[in-house]
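User: Hey, my collaborator sent me this sequence without any context and asked if I could get a structure. I don't really work with proteins. Can you help?
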Amino acid sequence: MTTGGRGLVKQTHPIRGALWGLMLGLGLAIVLVVTTVIELNLAQIILAVIVGMAIGVGWSLFGPARRPRGGAAPPPLQSERLADKPEDHVPPEPEADSP
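Assistant: No problem. I've predicted the 3D structure and written it out in structure-token form, which is a compact way to encode the shape of the chain:
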């Protein structure tokens, strides 16, 4: 967890970022080898995987935070707020009984 400048606490997940970065690095290595950007060399493949892991960990630490799952509902629209005024809801007039 890191603390923001305004006293806000941001929950980070560097292990999860490393795992997703590993997947990114493996995919990056496969694409680079298939498109012949790099040769089929173990050192270059490992370097691509390490770069992907670094990107994943960096994103998990410094990327934007998610909204909490139990967060507050979004504010109502202006038209919804105007429609819910009490003066708009006038009770019906009672019917007069005829003798």
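In plain terms: The two ends are 77 Å apart (CA to CA). You can pass these tokens on to your collaborator as they are.
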